[in-house]
Amino acid sequence: MTFPPGFVWGTATSAFQIEGATTVDGRGPSIWDTFAATPGKVEGGDTGEPACEHYTRYPEDIALMKRLGVSSYRFSLAWPRIQPTGTGPAEPRGLAFYDRLVDALLEAGIEPMVTLYHWDLPQALQDKGGWVNRDTVDHFTEYARIAHAHLGDRVKQWTTLNEPFCPAYLGYGIGIHAPGIVDPASALVAAHHLLLAHGRAMTAMRAQARPGQQFSLVLNFSTARVAVADEAHLAAARKVEGLSGRLFLEPVLRGVYPADVLSEVAHLNALAPAIREGDLAEIAAPIDWLGVNYYNPTRVAPAADPLYETPGALPGLRGVEILPPEGPLTHTGWEQEAAALTDLLRWLAEQAPGMPLLVTENGSAFPDEVSPDGQVHDPERTAYLLAHLRAVHAAIQAGVDVRGYLAWSLLDNFEWAFGYDKRFGLVHVDFATQARTFKDSAHAYAKVVAANAVAPE
Ligand code: IFM
Known about the structure:
The radius of gyration is 21 Å and the shape is globular. The model has no long low-confidence stretch (mean pLDDT about 100). The protein has 16 helices and 13 strands. It has one domain (about 10-450): Glycosidases (TIM Barrel). The chain starts with 7 loop residues before the first strand and ends in a 6-residue tail after the last helix. By secondary structure, the chain is of the alpha/beta class. It has helices spanning about 15-20, 30-35, 55-70, 80, 90-105, 125, 135-150, 165-175, 185-205, 230-255, 260-265, 270-275, 280-285, 340-350, 380-395, 440-450, and strands spanning about 10, 70-75, 110-115, 155-160, 215-220, 225, 290-295, 300, 320, 355-360, 400-410, 425-430, 435-440. Bound molecules: 5-hydroxymethyl-3,4-dihydroxypiperidine. The site of 5-hydroxymethyl-3,4-dihydroxypiperidine has 8 residues, from loops.
């Protein structure tokens, strides 16, 4: 099952999850430093230290990418390294780290793909309300301008945000991510401000862009699955997909919030009042491609009571039951269904005709250990990886314009509220010694990359 010529193969990470070195070279505290230092917020009391010590070990990590054979590396910049308090002049030592990283990637023949925001908001901005405060939109735009002006002579691929769903809904709605606020209305306001920050930063970067640069947004999607395709079940699925996916997608593609989603959340009286004239036109600034993160489907059913307040991350959702996932599950308790990725990509192609898609994250956590033979045998991850690659191939065969696949993640890393216990890496990290070991899944991925093809099941 061969992929198109020029198909982009890569891996993805994010700053807070791998860098460590949270107090060096002028870096300011981020909301994740604060959250992780708060007892009970992160499993095992884990923090952003040591993570993978990527701040100093990046040459070794680039060597791992070379060994995988990938041509692209998606990583994020830590805003608090570049502007320690979120505003004001750039910290040269923070920029210098990303200079070293980008230069070393280019030297290795690997294309850097920069994400500006993967959830590590400077704490000083959170102290003023964070993403609920509209001023954060302009601060983000200024940060984007600084980062893009500095690295734009070498970096061609720019993504504004990774998965705005997570900082908005998990961070402000149910509080299981930083900054730990539990208020569904704030979640919707944060979502709007994140989208506005995306659009405004996109326009600011385009205004100073060099030829050949591309700008994008990365969204996460979880296909809703129903046991019975009757009207009530399909309506439940539509509500879930609306609040989790279309609320972020449609304003970017079409400059409107979906009417059904606006009406679903109207009782919170939060989203509509946050929208000002001109916002949606800004959010709809054209993107060059859409990044798609997919891990698992969500099983849904209608609730008996239409006003039943659905527990979980979706702010204001009513009348829907989120059903338990069906096994075998990954270590994060997520259902595994590769066909849902094919369906998702096909659906996106219908939603956004002509828009190139990249699978910017996909992967699975399993409790891996280094075996006595010195290897890491991870048959479940290998099976998950190959099944999802076949699913991407199926979408391409069906005519979807998928340009690349970036495996999550290069390394085992800090998996947010789960701490270091949930391992998503193709490469195992022993956090006590920082030893890196290729897992069997890494060997399998390297084979696929080398062949530009995945073997049929
Ligand atoms: O580790 C995260 C990543 O930061 C964002 N997308 C999902 C991954 C796995 O949970």
